[in-house]
Prior knowledge:
With 99 residues, the protein is an alpha+beta fold. The chain is built from three helices and five strands; from the N terminus they run αββββαβα. It has one domain (4-83): 2-Layer Sandwich (GMP Synthetase, Chain A, domain 3). The strands form two sheets. The protein has a three-stranded mixed sheet, covered by helices on one side.
Amino acid sequence: MPSQNDLLEALRQVEDPELGMDVVDLGLVYEVEVEGPKVKIIYSLTSMGCPAGPLIAGDMERVSREVPGVEDVELELVFDPPWTPDKMSDDAKFILGFG
């Protein structure tokens, strides 16, 4: 059975092409729920009009389905709470010059 950590590690392969960093370190993945073979990923984007949104969603679904034991993936895009740079990992903040 897949774990939340398995999914988060897989999602580190998904990069925001505009910022050149993965969606986990950017703080775009808000929650990963695992119920047996079913996975729900609640995520956001850096802005509502993010042109890379469809690409990011497709990559998130693809890498999640590659995790052994995952049979169904549901993505939920939310903008509440809105993404802010303080959601980023310390490494991401350092690399992108925040804080």
